[in-house]
TrEMBL record, chain A:
The protein's name: Uncharacterized protein
GO cellular component terms listed in the entry, alphabetical order: cytoplasm
Matching PANTHER family: PROTEIN C12ORF4
Pfam families in UniProt: Fy-3
InterPro entries, A to Z: Fy-3 (IPR019311)
Automatic annotation (TrEMBL), chain B:
Molecular function in Gene Ontology: ATP binding; GTPase activator activity; protein kinase activity
Organism: Frieseomelitta varia
PROSITE patterns xref list: PROTEIN_KINASE_DOM, RHODANESE_3, TBC_RABGAP
Domain Rab-GAP TBC: 425-610
Transmembrane segments: none
PANTHER family tied to this protein: TBC DOMAIN-CONTAINING PROTEIN KINASE-LIKE PROTEIN, TBC1 DOMAIN FAMILY MEMBER GTPASE-ACTIVATING PROTEIN
Keyword Cytoplasm among UniProt keywords: no
InterPro entries assigned to the protein according to its UniProt record, in alphabetical order: Kinase-like_dom_sf, Prot_kinase_dom, Rab-GAP-TBC_dom, Rab-GAP_TBC_sf, Rhodanese-like_dom, Rhodanese-like_dom_sf
The Protein kinase domain, residue ranges: 1-261
Protein name, entry field: TBC domain-containing protein kinase-like protein
Superkingdom: Eukaryota
Keyword entries, A-Z: GTPase activation
Residues of the Rhodanese domain: 707-807
Amino acid sequence: MNMPEDEFVEKTFIYKFPTCTTNQEYVLEVPLKIPYGGNVKELMYRIMSSFKLPCYVESDLLQSLEHAIKTLTLEFYDEKAEKALEDTISGNLDIEDIIKNWEKTYKQKTAEYADPIGTTDEELFAAAYHKLVHSPSLEPILQAEHKFGRDVTEVIQMRDSHYEQLTQKQTEEMRVAVESLEAGSTEKSINEMAGRHFEEQSLLQGHWGSRVDALKLDQRRQYRNWIMRLLEEQQTNMLPTPVGSPILSMPPIRPALDNFVHSEEKNTAEYPILEESFTIHLGSQMKQMHNIRILTGDVLDFCRTKKSDSGMDPTPQRLQTALGLYSNDLCGLVLLSDNHLGSYSGITKELCSICQLTTEFHFPPIDEQLEKIREDVKDAVAWRQAHQREGNDSQTKRSTGSKSLQTGDVYITRHSNLAQVHVIFHMVVNDSLRSGEFFMLTRVFAKFTGDINSRHSVILGLRNILKTACCNDVTTLTIPILLVHEMSEDMTVAWCTKRAELVFKCVKGFMIEMASWGGAELKNLQFLVPKGMSEEVFGTLATMLPSIFRVSNPLVFKATSTPQTPKK
Amino acid sequence: MCPALLENEERCFGGMTFFAQSHPVEVCGSNGLPLTPNSITIYGKSQFLKTIHHPNLSTYLDIIRSKHERIVVVAEYNGDPLNSKKNLNTDDILKIAFQCLLGLRYMNKLGLVHRHLSPENILLNKSGNVQLYNFGLYFMTDCGKNVSFPIGYPKYTAPEVFLSSGVSSPKVDSWSLGMIIAELLLTKSIWSGVKLSQCLRKVLSLIHCETSVFERLAREINCYNIYKDLPDKVKEFVDCCLQIHPLKRKIPEELLKLPIFEKFLLQNEKEIEKNLYMNVIVRKMDELYYLWQLAGGDITVELKKQGLIRSRPPILSIPNLVILLGQMFGRRDTAGLFDLRVVKIPLDTLHQRLSHIPYIANYPWLTDQMRVQSQEELIDAASQLPLIIRERDTEYQFYRIVLYDRLLQVYPITREAIIEEAHKDIPPPVRGAVWAALLGITGDIQKYYDMIDKETPTHTDRQIEVDIPRCHQYSELLSSGAGHERLQRLLKAWVRNNPHYVYWQGLDSLTAPFLYLNFNNEARAFECLSKFIPKYLHKFFLKDNSAIIQEYLGKFSQIIAFHDPQLANHLRSINFVLELFAIPWFLTMFSHVFPLHKILHLWDKLLLGDSSFPLLVGLAILKQLRDSLLTSGFNECILLFSDLPEIDIELCVKDSMMMYQNTPPSITYRKHQFNQPKDINWLEPEPGTEKMPRICVDDFLDLLDNSPDRLIAVDIRNNIQFERGAVVGSINIPFTSVQLSLTHIETLGPHAKPLVENKNSIVVIIGPHDQNNALFADFLIKCGVVGVCSLQGGISALRMKSPNIIVAPR
């Protein structure tokens, strides 16, 4: 409801009192703001002292002042109300409008008049799952998820190998055809062949695509039914061991495919993983504790479920993610991406393929999520145009004009089947496609303007991420410290330290600010350094951390029994 | 046979919750700082409600602000709502009306409007008495501005509320009461089963009514017969309420003057008189709430049980898109509806917890020495436990609260006893009052405070305005609008009341703990500040306070050297002067250094000590930093102090108490302290000797008499003088024999063995004149000898005071 700001009227308070010696009357006139917000007694004392009134009028003055303020205030309200009534009776105010507005407010804001909202399926399933993973059913659930996941992965690997075979065959065919261009084949026939190849490819793609989709759909349905059934059984007979998993009813996967497994995934341990952890304190008087970790690695390693050696057991990270999925401690990851929201190129494509390796049982599949976001982007663009800033800032102007996302905008996807994250914050870093090019751009930028500063859109986007995390109970967050995912040769040590310092300092500021946002405090903050960073540079960045954040005092137990200080 | 505690307790807690309106994205206030979240504004404003105690109003007990702008309100809930009662006769109804009006009149006197009056919010207890519930909702939300939902039950809301926005006057409550009473009288619900829009239309259509609204309503719901038979006086009352024109409608105070309430008023007066001595030993609801929480009660859990706090997993409501300007899209959020329901929580948990305590423990006996008889061994056993544990022990806190309550009732004659008890501990709920007692505050402080002008602009306003939004803002109380306003009033009042002083930055931090404890009692906060400053910070707030600060820091460095020569030597060697960090420590008595909850525990003890105690607190803090300091150079030290690491406050308090007891009082005497003890003749130290700690003759004699083993007297006169007469047991190290440049204690020879081995004793240098004493003391400190000080006035002063202790050694 909109209320007019500070309504008041000026009134004059008149006070008369007799003098002791003469017959004259003293008259005071004091301007009053009605309604009067302050303390009447204090006002009385102020009047007494500024007019130098004798003390014997004190109680009398107070009484008449109180009385005057009371009557004037009532008069003020009455007048206002009377005016409204008059307007209504005379028809100046539209009653129907008023009724409609009030009805709307009541319906939208109070539980009594709002349309009853039941618990949604989503919430029911969430509650069921959360309860089950915190019960002995945890293990079978994870097993089932893992098994389902393996099935999908196998089919996908099968698809990939078929695809590869076809491509090989076609390339060979094409090579032969081109070589014999003079002898026999014509340009036309080659074109025809290319067309046929393309058709074959699409056919294969369609075939496998529908097969994977069908499998996933089937799995999802089975899984969700199973979970609900499991909960029911657990509630009714308090079974310590859960009912059999739905795996048995699945069509067995041909064992012939086993040789496809374990072919890739061997190149991950190329670089040594460097990492260091700190516990820090923020705040000048009230100190907040946070854990901070700096480590090297590939950003998508947080998403990839690593295959355990046997391939039969789910990895421990999955356990962690399953337990936390519907809790108030979510894990988030900042992924730098482009504004195309597409699954066709760049890091988003890689992410999509990781997500699609297994079935998403809880949220819509990633492509559907992205589709939904594309719709929201339309709203956002409209909103941005509507709220075109009056400021002449060229950057805002440019960005408001565009039809797509801008640098610093963030879209968010939710996942239940990734290794260590639930929520991915995709921050748009620039108009071009790859984060590598973003680096190129910032480098050029750096040459002219001395690198990005704390007012850069990316930093503001980072702040929005932290704020969203805070408001939605994301308490573990991983941020690429250099705001790039890949190292390249032209990143000098100086550039790295400067960029890292900026990010450290800005994040520190945002975390201090966070205390006033009224959400969940960030408990664990991870700074991700691109893999391949040299040990020295990593060391520099790691030592920078405790100098920027105040590392909390370790509790030291002294071996000596005698206290050290002052005396004893 | 006494009943057990809390048996037949009819009172309950009522919990309700709502969401404050969140600010639109990224807006700043006029001062350029981010806007205070509405939940904090509500939190600050609602504190006032806790002070309202009236038999017909439900007492507010607690307001909790939790994550995501949620507010939880806890209030007394006594009885059942009016809409659950059936078959009330006219007399009962009139009594209800009368008591409602009493409650409303009291609210209006305080400037409150209910605005939410409905049968659900009128509670009737077993004896038929009325309490208005939820009466502060309109007030705490700043007339509904801080929440998005409308306040008021449509059917009972006065028509003008719908027609004009803005603040409502007390007359809207008269209307609501009229509607409620009319319904009761007609024994039929008005417009039952009518849709919301229809209901609103009906309320608004009443404004065209030319005759009695009551009559019209009666006809509308086919109850004209009942209406007809009602006594005229009753009709008159309802008509007075249900006046369409606010101008003609009466406010509750005027309604009470209607003839129909005459007999009720008389009866009410009699009852008040009768009850004056009836319920002296009924524990107050806020105390019970405090104990209930200690016994494991948690209002949020209760609300969750009843489904009033629905916890939707956060991952389900995270938005899809956040654009650069902070606007969110695709948020799947549904929470935030205002739910009127109240959860009623009986006191069972607490009753069980305290059931074995005899009833008489409620009101302990006050002896003629103005002491309270110590209750149980329990207290003694528990008092050995750490403070943190004692503060969470329900039973222990019950006894302590009862005890303090009794003592505070008859303060100031019990001041001595309060001080004694405060040495043990102070329970949090009474801390504000106990501190005031420790500082010796008496008299009509409210009047005195009212008389101080806090409005007229002064030239310090600007600075105060800048400082307040930076003062302990992590505290919800102090960061709220009400907190800022009150702090400003306090500071302005202090500046106005102390024209000889100026506002130094830091006064805000110093005021914060007092405001925090006395949030609803500015006068007491002010008086505490006014008493505290002369006691501990005499003359610190002079426009030119350099001499006082110099002296204070000088004393501090003496104390460091006295207790920890190694640290003193290190700081001296890296040229790290105390001015670099200690001024804010002492100027704010550490309130700028620590968070409020630590300050409270620190000041609990500080207030029991004299003005030298802070020096030892400072030393105790240094002691915790000692290891890092000793290994740090100048720059590291600067960094260390600029962002002080976490300090263990309980240890700090313990250390400072211990060192306070081990320090002869005369060592800490300052020229600029308030109330200098009469027994000490202040002697201006000779130039060049200010750095040396000095002990007065009385303290020396006291040590010599009572704990000679803690005293090592070093006589630095020459042999001949020493032979002629010296203090028994003193060591003679002639000053001339000392090579000052060689800072090795071994150079003093075998005499000095006790000095080397000294751990806990006080080394008193007795010499003919200060210059040499100072040089020698400096020498000893450099050698790392602890407890070095010099005797003021030397041997001659000793001879004058107590000639018989000076004897010839042989």
